């Protein structure tokens, strides 16, 4: 999957920036589905740290119980989930949103997810699957590029024009399929369309055969704080069918979750 960059809006390090803490987070993020177990040298190369710096951080994380090692290879432990759970437990809305999403899945018989925007990516905060419809394995905490996903474009649509452009320009914009739109100008037009119509459909841009449609979850002030989507296979559900028969139910579910805010 594409590499992830820091948000253009994040300020440069200053007096309030704790560099050692930032490096610790870099080390944690270096582990992934593609690199679940790494040597000290691999962690150092992935983070740009010296071997000595990477070793100090890994041993600190090991002492705290977030990392384990067999003497050569390092890996994250289940305790690392505590960090993500702290976010989810501080947002009780997702506990209340889950029944709404489960009801939607029962109604449309397609997978449903909720995500928030983080820099140039979306991060999944809740997912109710039906069938496995993607090669990519998704769960809470999974990240996907915002530029080529229905939830990502809808979340970008809530930003001001300069911020939208900055985030799109900072995105790697890899062409995942022959349908993927990568031109910044064309993407800005699609994001603007999503803003006007209040929903977004993406047809096979992230993965061949995958279609998704998203609706906004808004707070009391009308700001989009998350997005809700339905995903399906093109050979089972066409884009037109998804828009005509599933969009009304999706919009109603998004309104219900927004009301819970």
TrEMBL record:
Q: HTH iclR-type domain location, by residue? A: 18-78
**Pfam families this protein is in?**
HTH_IclR, IclR_C
Q: Which top-level group of life is the source organism from?
A: Bacteria
Q: Provide the alphabetized UniProt keywords.
A: DNA-binding, Transcription, Transcription regulation
- Domain IclR-ED, chain residue ranges per copy: 79-261
Note the PANTHER family from the entry. HELIX-TURN-HELIX TRANSCRIPTIONAL REGULATOR, ICLR FAMILY, TRANSCRIPTIONAL REGULATOR
| The protein's name in its UniProt record | IclR family transcriptional regulator
- Species per Swiss-Prot/TrEMBL record: Variovorax ginsengisoli
Q: Lineage from the top down?
A: Bacteria, Pseudomonadati, Pseudomonadota, Betaproteobacteria, Burkholderiales
């Amino acid at each position: 999957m594409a590499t992830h960059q820091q948000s253009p809006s994040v300020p440069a390090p200053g007096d309030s920036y704790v560099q050692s803490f930032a490096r610790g987070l870099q080390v944690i993020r270096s582990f992934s589905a593609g690199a679940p177990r790494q040597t000290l040298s691999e962690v150092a190369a992935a983070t740009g740290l010296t071997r000595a710096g990477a070793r100090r951080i890994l041993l600190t994380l090991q002492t705290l119980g977030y990392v384990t090692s067999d003497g050569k290879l390092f890996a994250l432990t289940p305790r690392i989930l505590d960090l993500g759970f702290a976010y989810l437990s501080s947002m009780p809305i997702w506990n209340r949103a889950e029944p709404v999403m489960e009801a939607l899945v029962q109604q449309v018989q397609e997978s449903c997810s909720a995500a928030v925007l983080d820099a140039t990516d979306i991060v999944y905060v809740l997912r109710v699957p039906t069938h496995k419809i993607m090669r990519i394995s998704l769960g809470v905490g999974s990240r996907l590029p915002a530029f080529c996903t229905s939830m990502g474009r809808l979340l970008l649509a809530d930003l001001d024009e300069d911020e939208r452009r900055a985030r799109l320009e900072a995105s790697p914009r890899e062409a995942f399929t022959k349908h993927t739109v990568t031109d910044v100008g064309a993407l800005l037009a699609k994001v603007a369309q999503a803003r006007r119509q209040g929903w977004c459909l993406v047809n096979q841009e992230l993965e061949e055969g995958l279609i998704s449609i998203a609706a906004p979850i808004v707070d009391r002030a009308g700001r989009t704080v998350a997005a809700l989507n339905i995903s399906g296979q093109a050979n089972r559900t066409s884009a037109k069918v998804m828009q005509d028969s599933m969009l009304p139910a999706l919009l109603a579910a998004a309104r219900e979750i927004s009301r819970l805010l």
